[in-house]
Amino acid sequence: MTQQMEAASLTVDELAARAGVTVRTVRFYSTRGLLPPPEIGPRRVGRYGPDHLSRLALIEELQSQGMTLSAIERYVQQLPEDLSAYDLAIHRALVASWMPDTADEVTREQLARRSGRELTEEDLERLVAMSVLESTDDPAVFRVDPGMLPLGVRLLDVPMSLESILAARKVVLEHTREVARELSQLFRAEVWEPYREREPAPEQVERMKSLSAHMQPLVVQALLTAFQRSLKEELRSAFPKERAPRLGR
Fold first, then answer.
1. What is the spatial distance between Cα 140 and Cα 152, in angstroms, rounded to a whole number?
2. Is residue 183 part of a domain?
3. pLDDT of 70-107, one tens digit each?
4. Which domain holds residue 142?
5. CB 3.0–4.6 Å: which of 49, 54, 72, 96 could bond 8 by disulfide?
6. What global pTM score does this model have?
7. What secondary structure does DSSP assign to 41-95, as a single string?
8. Are 178 and 115 contained in the same domain?
């Protein structure tokens, strides 16, 4: 059975275990409309798919950014309806990139459960090389980047050499870092400095924290949309007489 088929048949307990949350949290998000309803299978048992898992991970990431549930609801409602689980995973990884560097320590068993598959020694080596995982003194324990794990696991099945994946990662990091630098300079000049002139010092920090928490996911969404459109245009130019390959779906 493939990973996709396994994910499409997750029970609510399995979904919660894969996402690292409680069943109560899953049901709460569902009642708030943050998660689409499950497919009803035999014996009236709800079944959850990869879209539920990716959307749940994104919601958790937004909440860790300090966004309220109401703000998350507005953010999720603005997402295109046809976003795939892969697109949502990219959203989550990009949102996580705004957070301070964090890593969870997990055992190999926990890592397999969060990945939704057994990982071979070669798989682990590739994930370490992609900086998704970091080895520790204990060979059975790894530090994992929770924002990058879903994408890293999916890349294990992509027919690309590790060298090509690392080269692509380098290109993305270099260009996104430059974009982040320019956006930070713009934010400071157009938003932060005017606030400093108008607001008392004690209120400045809290206002900036609140504004930043709301702006960052919106900037991420804008960057993702612009990149997807640019990628489609580049593929059309590269394959003018052929059907351009589709990435991420």
1. 19
2. yes
3. 878 877 777 776 677 767 766 666 665 544 455 678 88
4. 100-158
5. 49
6. 0.48
7. -GGG-EEB-HHHHHHHHHHHHHHHTT--HHHHHHHHHHS-TT--HHHHHHHHHHH
8. no
